[in-house]
Every structure is written in structure tokens, then in C-alpha cells.
Amino acid sequence: MRHLDFSPLYRSTVGFDRLFSMLDQMNSDAPSYPPYNIERTGENAYRISMAVAGFADKDLSVEAKEHVLTVKGEKPAEEDGRDVLYRGIASRAFERRFQLAEFVRVEGAHLENGLLHIDLVREVPEAMKPRRIEIATGAPKQIETLSA
């Protein structure tokens, strides 16, 4: 994939630097571990499901801060005297970041059958929602002045 240069747009735009940095991050090669799905579960509801087999809830942390959701996993080193001949189950530490849109908040997270499910909901404030404006017919109302 080729790299897009957004520097000419910086000269004529104000306030879009976060958008351009997000686009730059999308062009970079992102790590593929652990695998995950993002799904829409309702009109304003989403779920991120991450395959974290072998991790317990105490080994995982989920943090939302300033439009960034960070999921970290770190297992303590196994020193139980086992002699592993082949290691196919990954147990390496990871950190995965997701950019959240405005008004998206984390509703909860739970671990089930080796999958970490993070539920998200978008709550648009009433002031930001579209509203219908009634169109009046007839003559405009006139305010009468009272003489003293």
C-alpha cells in the first residue's frame, strides 16, 4: 500500500490534525495479535471481541481515555518446571488500541470462553440530534405596543 502525504492539507485546514494522524496510523502495519472482531449489535451499540485464550481476567486490563480504548494483556512468567517441546499457544504480552468516535463510551467488558467482549454504546446528546422545525403558515405574528 502506498503512503499518502497529508502535509499540503495542513496548510489549508484547521482542527483536522487528529483525523490526519488517524489516517496515517491506518496506513502503518498494525500488529495482528490478538485477533479481534468489531460488530454492530444495535443501532447505537457495538462489540469488540478479542481472542485471548490462556489469559485470565486478572491478566487483562481495559482502559478508555480521551477517545482511545486500550486493551492490555500480560501473563506472569510460567516457571512450574514444565519442559515444553513445542509452544503453539501464544502467551506473549500485548497492547491493542482502538480509536473511539465522539460520544462512544465503554459500557462493560466480560471474559467468556477465551473471548474478551467489550460492549460500546454511542450516546449522542439531545442538543446534537436532528430536530424537526415546524413551518408556520399564514401571516407572521406581530407584537403590539401598548401606549402609556
TrEMBL record:
State if Calcium is listed as a keyword.
Answer: no
> From which residue to which does any coiled coil extend?
none
Q: Report the CDD domains cross-referenced here.
A: ACD_IbpA-B_like
InterPro entries named among the record's database cross-references: A-crystallin/Hsp20_dom, ACD_IbpA/B, HSP20-like_chaperone
- Please provide the record's keywords in A-Z order: Stress response
Q: Which family does it belong to?
A: Belongs to the small heat shock protein (HSP20) family.
Q: What is the name of the protein in this document?
A: DNA gyrase subunit B
